[in-house]
Amino acid sequence: MQPIDFKDVTIGGGFWGELQRKNAEVSVYNIHKRFAETGRFRAMKCIRDDAHKPHVFWDSDIAKWLESVANILAKKEDPQLKAWADEAIADICNSQLPCGYFNCYFQVYEPENIFRKRPEHELYCAGHLIEAAVALHEAGVDDKLYAAMIRYADYIYERFYVKKDAGFVTCGHPEIELALVKLYRATGAQKYLDLADFFIEERGRHNEETYAFTYPVYHLDHAPVREQKTAEGHAVRALYLYIAMADVARLKGDRELADTCETLFEDIIGKKMYITGGTGSSYHGETFTFAYDLPNIFAYSETCAAIALAFFCDRLARIRNRAVYHEIFERVLYNNVLAGESRDGKGFFYVNPLEFHENIYDYNEGLKTKLFCPIPERVEVFDCSCCPPNLTRFIESIGSYIYAEEGGTVYVNQYISSSARVGGAQLLIESAMPYGGTARVRVQGKADLRLRVPAWRGGVSMKVNGRRAEPQIADGYIALACDGDTAIDLDFRIRPRFVYANENVWYDNGRKAVEYGPLVLCAESCDNGPNLRAVRVRSLAGAKVSAGEGPFALEVPAERLRTSAALYSYEPPVPERCTLKLIPYFAWANRGKGDMQVWFL
Amino acid sequence: MQPIDFKDVTIGGGFWGELQRKNAEVSVYNIHKRFAETGRFRAMKCIRDDAHKPHVFWDSDIAKWLESVANILAKKEDPQLKAWADEAIADICNSQLPCGYFNCYFQVYEPENIFRKRPEHELYCAGHLIEAAVALHEAGVDDKLYAAMIRYADYIYERFYVKKDAGFVTCGHPEIELALVKLYRATGAQKYLDLADFFIEERGRHNEETYAFTYPVYHLDHAPVREQKTAEGHAVRALYLYIAMADVARLKGDRELADTCETLFEDIIGKKMYITGGTGSSYHGETFTFAYDLPNIFAYSETCAAIALAFFCDRLARIRNRAVYHEIFERVLYNNVLAGESRDGKGFFYVNPLEFHENIYDYNEGLKTKLFCPIPERVEVFDCSCCPPNLTRFIESIGSYIYAEEGGTVYVNQYISSSARVGGAQLLIESAMPYGGTARVRVQGKADLRLRVPAWRGGVSMKVNGRRAEPQIADGYIALACDGDTAIDLDFRIRPRFVYANENVWYDNGRKAVEYGPLVLCAESCDNGPNLRAVRVRSLAGAKVSAGEGPFALEVPAERLRTSAALYSYEPPVPERCTLKLIPYFAWANRGKGDMQVWFL
Q1: Which residues 6+ apart lie within 8 Å of B112 measured at CB?
Q2: Interface test with B, best of A336, A567, A600, A601 (most B CBs within 10 A)
Q3: Domains in chain A, start-ordered, CATH in brackets?
Q4: How far is CA B146 from the centre of its chain?
Q5: Spatial CA neighbour of B13 closest among B333, B419, B342, B340
Q6: Per-residue pLDDT tens for A280-299?
Q7: Any CB–CB contact under 8 A between A493 and chain B?
Q8: Which of A135, A162, B426, B590 could join B444 via S-S bond, C-beta 3.0 to 4.6 A?
Q9: What ipTM does the predicted assembly reach?
Q10: Residue B286 annotated to the active site
């Protein structure tokens, strides 16, 4: 299956048009401002300043910002962003060493340790710079960074693949692998695919350096990748590796490697994923832990891990399409990914808990030695600020995940208002999602169409050119042969539904979440008062959609289980009727500090 | 109210007779063995051995062991224990400095820092040595340590109260205060009460040294004690301080200080106590946190804190008796305190969680940098081994909490099979508790009797000399005037009951615990299979007591909420009938590693 690239897709208005507008006009600007204020752009000049040493991963922050800009400029002009990008690119190119190497930290502060400190993100940074360069090149924005990064990639190839004289075989943080696949695609040069393949296959075959606090599993070094059957270690590192594995499996037609990816995917979605699509439940090493370990309050669930899981879904679909990949993509996208950003587009979450208690946070803030605790409001920059520009580049490229083509068949995988030419046909989607369950798909021309049926549907009804038609559903898609000018009206009968977690998820037994279409809903104390844990929802029969102050809210008849003031009592709690106001999970924490909850009695 | 001292109470057979036998024959012996093996006894000789430096609190370990031995020897002969005690006492007395000072760590390794390092437990150790000395003296076992500790107390008085030339005003770990009250009672010398009062009142009035990781609140230094209205800081330190405050309030008739103690007690039992009587919910600083913060899996709930809360209940009852003090004492005693010891009497818990998941423990054990996690089986000694000898001294003195007298009125506060002379009467209790709800109280002589009515009663029926009598209950006691030879048969109609936590306890909403008389019950996976979180108990109507392999079990009709294998599903879980086998909480973790749970759906 070949997706239609976002550069060939026009996003219409509606939900995603608005998100992209905010992304291009607010988020990318504000990240530039904060990255400039924190010295990240200045660091690209590679001028020694011992008082303001850059982090080893700052290159990747700038690279992801550049990739975001490339994705914007591919579709519209923005002289300011272009000027800033040119400046950063010039700084990087001017600082690049004659051999091709570039790293704003190592070449300035530890040149003697270039390619010697395995956990320190060097090839991770290189990978993001390569991704940015390819994006800028393909957007027709810039070729200078592209040329520079080809030189860098050639240098990496020389050192790691030909001479093998670097201090390590594989980087502690995967990313270079998937970037090399992109470079292979852009250049057509086999060596980059070979190098990606090499980095993938060599992992787990050497006793390589890891952080002092952890074991090789953290870096996915515990076994050769083909023997890895469960998702382990640092979630983002793991998923970036899996993405590259899926890429290589597809490009080389490697069924065994593809099956490994599929097994890892099933382990994640079957045992290690929050209902929001979040993965990596532990803050300790930002890792996958063990099956069904999905704590809500102290969830880690990094925004970057969610984005990475979305990428992984997309890569798997390209090998052998299954509706479940798009279903999980949709879950990750509308919940954990979107939660990463504040309503105003300026603030970001790194950590995405499914339950928040103001008291826990306040108590922890009062400690002299603080423990890990998610934060109640998004912030504009982090010391480790990987998530913000990851989000902006992803939001800008959302068009890539809507349409696809395979052997003459045209797929609609996500209902995002947009238009594109797919195969011989022109497609136009007008979608009410995520707040509504309807979509109109117009097809001009001839197309053997497959329209994905969302897993959350309350039903499916379809009209073709105004006339009711019985949808033929197979493998999660409606099949429909179109010819000429066809208007397909779809109604997936969106309605609130309870979702139950597997009985082995200790944190959720006896509780349920409420979903509305692709949205996981949550309640906040600013709407519902404190102590959401005591709220019981028996039925969704009387639930009402209300616009409220945000774009969407669901009011549900519920009850609060009231007890006496005693700490322990023989008297059962008494239910007291109330209305529970639910909002999309992604919209939480936009109205000041307060409690939040996803799973209800 | 004046309790009858355990030395004047004979414990009969039954539950407590067996516990005390095990305590005297196994636990105290085994602790001696482990303390000897770990160098604690040798350390009392104060011979420098840099390879085996003692911990600063080892004096207190030996002191509590000596106090345990004193309590045993007060009632029976044991030449071996006596010989060991004599040896330790001789070592301490021989090592004591001419000024009276003794500390096996400071005088050997840091003499220049004697009374200079406030957080380092010096006066805490002194306090426990004084308690041991008083116990040995009052048991008629030894007067050498008593004389030595009077000299030490005099030296402390001189340095801290007269010259005020020590490096701190109050010790980082309260304990000396309550010990000085005991010394005052034993010697009649006012100076010790004055010194206790001084240490209490000066706390929070100086900006004294605390550990780097925390604030003054950890040491209860955040305010003068009379202004402390909520239980804060390190739970054991806090409770040891409150005990002394209650002692001084009583001895000096200080109503304000007594009210402060009462306020602190209400804060604890109303907002900060586990159903097991555990306090100090956080491992981070072993502290009280905030109201209703009572996590089950990562509960700290130190055994010493439970013992301290029991002591505090007793001290409050002496000021102005209320049935609630004995009710909480009973809850603490039969649950958190007894859980501290293994069935064989050799192993001990420091931390007492209310829920245990083997998978969490195993995962954590597999980490290179481990996080805090309670352990699944009791161990014979800890690096910080405060709990084991605290438990043995307490179990041995349990007789002190049964009977009391006040203004000619005779109180029975705990139904423990025993006999004692109280006022002018001889009392004998034969009790089925904790596994049964009946007790026979025989009174020979004249007594204005008050028999406590347990809060857990299903009802009360009473026979006096074989004839049904209507109990006159007031303030939690049955009042009964006895004259001659009176046999009172009580039946508190023990039955299993659901207990519900306050709606603000997030961890327990929608769940209930099962109590049987004074016992909180729990389920273990070895009886019930894994995943106890999915077990729902709707009613206790069909519950049956079964002897099983332990002395007590309760079999309850229940259901498991079964789900499909999917991680998330729109299908509600399906209840599957099962029998839930419950055992006393204190008896958990005696049959190998496994899951345990107190709160059920």
Answers
A1: none
A2: A567
A3: 403-491 (2.60.420), 502-597 (no CATH)
A4: 25
A5: B419
A6: 999 999 999 999 999 999 99
A7: no
A8: B426
A9: 0.96
A10: yes
